[in-house]
Write a structure and sequence with these properties.
Blueprint lengths: L2 H17 E8 L9 E10 L3 H10 L3 E4 L8 E7 H11 L7 H20 L7 H18 L4 H7 L5 H4 L2
C-alpha cells in the first residue's frame, strides 16, 4: 500500500469521526407477509462540500445536495452502502478515534448478514435471524449515544492544561 493511501484513509477517518454516521437501517417490508430488510451504510453530512468532493473522488459513490428552507447553506450528504461501506470501514478503522467500535459492529453485522442471506434467499426470514439483525442495529444505536468524557480526554492530548482540569 502506498503512503498516500494511508494519509487518505486517516483523513477519511477524521471526517467520519467528526461528521459521519455508521448506521444499520431497518426498512419496512415491501409486501404483506415479507420480512423487514436491514442495510448498512456510512454517511457523511456537511455544509461545506469540499470534504465530500474528496470522498467522492477517492472512494466513489455520489453526493446529494439538499436545500432546506430553514438552513442558510445547502447540506451535502455522501453515502456508501453494504459491501462498499464495509470496504471503507476496514481500511479506515485503524485510524478512527471515536467510531472504531461502531465500525467493528457494522463489519460484523454485514458479514453475518451476507452469510445468512447466502443460505436463505427468501422474502420471509426466520425470526432468529431478524432478532440477530435487530441486536446488531441496537448495539450500533447504543454506541451512537455513548460518550465518555474521561475516555475522550485521556485519548486526546491538549496543549492547554487548564482544559484538562475541566
Amino acid at each position: 500500500m502506498k503512503y498516500r493511501n494511508y494519509a487518505y484513509y486517516a483523513y477519511t477517518a477524521g471526517v467520519i469521526d467528526c461528521d459521519g454516521c455508521i448506521t444499520i437501517q431497518k426498512q419496512s417490508p415491501r409486501k404483506v407477509g415479507w420480512s423487514p430488510s436491514y442495510g448498512l451504510y456510512v454517511e457523511v453530512t456537511q455544509t461545506d462540500g469540499r470534504a465530500i468532493d474528496f470522498l467522492v473522488g477517492f472512494w466513489g459513490g455520489r453526493y446529494y445536495k439538499y436545500n432546506y428552507s430553514s438552513q442558510k447553506q445547502p447540506i451535502y450528504k455522501w453515502r456508501r452502502y453494504g459491501d462498499d461501506a464495509v470496504d471503507l470501514l476496514k481500511k479506515v478503522s485503524p485510524f478512527l478515534r471515536y467510531k472504531q467500535e461502531q465500525a467493528q459492529v457494522a463489519i460484523e453485522f454485514r458479514l453475518f448478514q451476507k452469510r445468512f442471506l447466502k443460505i436463505h434467499r427468501a422474502a420471509r426470514l426466520p425470526q432468529d435471524a431478524l432478532d440477530r439483525f435487530e441486536e446488531y442495529k441496537q448495539r450500533l444505536s447504543t454506541l451512537h449515544h455513548t460518550f465518555e468524557a474521561a475516555k475522550a480526554l485521556a485519548t486526546t492530548k491538549r496543549d492547554n492544561s487548564s482544559e484538562e482540569e475541566k
